[in-house]
Amino acid sequence: MSNTVLHIENVSKRYILNQKGSSNDDLRDTITRMTSKVLKPSQSKIDKEEFWALRDINMEVKQGDRLGLVGANGAGKSTLLKVLSQITQPTSGIVKVKGRMASLLEVGTGFHPELTGRENIFLNGAILGMQKSEIIKHFDAIVDFAGIAKFIDTPVKRYSSGMYVRLGFAIAAHLEPEILVVDEVLAVGDADFQKKSIGKMRDVSNSGRTLIFVSHNLTAVQGLCNKGAYLRSGELIKYGKIDEVVNEYVKNVSKFQLTQNWNDIDTAPGNESIRIKSINLIPKNDLLQDNFDTRTAFEISFEYWNLVPNSELNVSIFLYAMTGECIFNVGDEAKVYQKGIIKSSCQIPGDFLNDGSYYISIMIVRDRIAPVYFFEDALAFDILDYRDGTDWYGKWPGSIRPKMIVVNSIQKELL
């Protein structure tokens, strides 16, 4: 027990929607509700509704463990990290932390927007309880890792989201906490930064410190972590060896969902700018088959309501393997649309994808750069294996399996 750095016992977190406030709120939630009360006092009459983000979570994390949290959006992963980081208090249960913890949870968390990058490095170090001399020792390495030397004396409110995350991760990883908590750092940043981040997290673990890592990229989670926790609807489904946990998660989420349709614009997913009308996966082959296999060609068909006139919009379609690996991202040309229904489609050829499980996400972008709505995990499907005229039945590596011909010829015979 002496090497246990994180003890989580019967931890639950309840939010009460439309409440006046409670001792379990974080400061931001309390201020928001107080402001709403002043502006809209009649809201206090709205019925309260309970939402349990976590229910009876039990785990013990040992020193040097690399724990990966997996689960769909809304499973409770981020809430659990906030509870562990003491950003919000649990409704019930016990959390015991041994050692200093550094957390990178959201873009900009822990930064003062008016302070420069330099000033925020020292501020974060002080919050972690470090002496100024310790921060100075790591300062150059932090700046170099984040790649922001030219902007170190610029207020961070002028930083891009990528710069925010690079600096936040560099601070958290280099100031030598006993426990490093990282939420979706791989979702922002280029390939070079992602590679450096994985390497740094591995260095943290190899030095005997503990890592808690959340990512939708299951390949990265499996490659980095030795322990895993699978959350679903606030409950801990499985905790143990990372490969067993990931397999359980993939088995549960690998379900067919080939079509979604909404006829009522008021209840359709979206926002004040767009609403989703339909998204469908349509097989195009003239094959007598009940399932998709590696031969199957199909079309992704997508319709949405544009609610803002004179909007320059384009659609990006993302295809992911169930491991979180992005197979491709394709988009149409940006065009100016009036209010109405817009349809987009994408043709996927047969003999392209390998057998496995896949899912599709859709992003609608305005003015070429501003995301309007991200429809995550919109469809899910399986591709089955198909072999014809071959004696080899092993697993083909990778997520794509294009049908290509290799031509051989004898250039010269040796006698």
Question: Which features characterize this protein?
Answer:
23% helix; 415 residues; alpha+beta
List the helices and strands and how they pair.
Elements: E1 4-17, H1 27-39, E2 49-62, E3 66-70, H2 77-84, E4 92-97, E5 101-104, H3 117-127, H4 132-146, H5 161-174, E6 179-183, H6 191-206, E7 210-214, H7 218-224, E8 227-232, E9 235-241, H8 242-253, E10 259-261, E11 274-283, E12 298-306, E13 311-321, E14 326-331, E15 335-337, E16 340-348, E17 356-366, E18 370-383
Helix pairs in contact: 3-4, 4-5
Largest sheet: 6 strands, mixed
Q: Based on DSSP secondary structure assignment, what is the total number of beta strands? A: 18
As laid out across the biggest beta sheet, the strand order is: 5-6-7-3-8-9
Query: In what range is the share of β-strand residues?
Result: 25-35%
Q: Distance between the terminal alpha carbons, to the nearest Å?
A: 72 Å
Notes on the structure:
This protein has 415 residues and is an alpha+beta fold. It has eight helices and 18 strands. The chain has helices at 27-39, 77-84, 117-127, 132-146, 161-174, 191-206, 218-224, 242-253; strands at residues 4-17, 49-62, 66-70, 92-97, 101-104, 179-183, 210-214, 227-232, 235-241, 259-261, 274-283, 298-306, 311-321, 326-331, 335-337, 340-348, 356-366, 370-383. The strands form four sheets. Strands 5-6-7-3-8-9 form a six-stranded mixed beta sheet, with helices on both faces. Strands 13, 14, 15, 17 and 18 form a five-stranded antiparallel beta sheet that branches. A hairpin with a 2-residue loop joins strand 8 and strand 9 (235-241). The longest helix is centred in the middle third of the chain and has 16 residues, at 191-206. The termini are far apart. Residues 42-46 have low confidence and may be disordered.
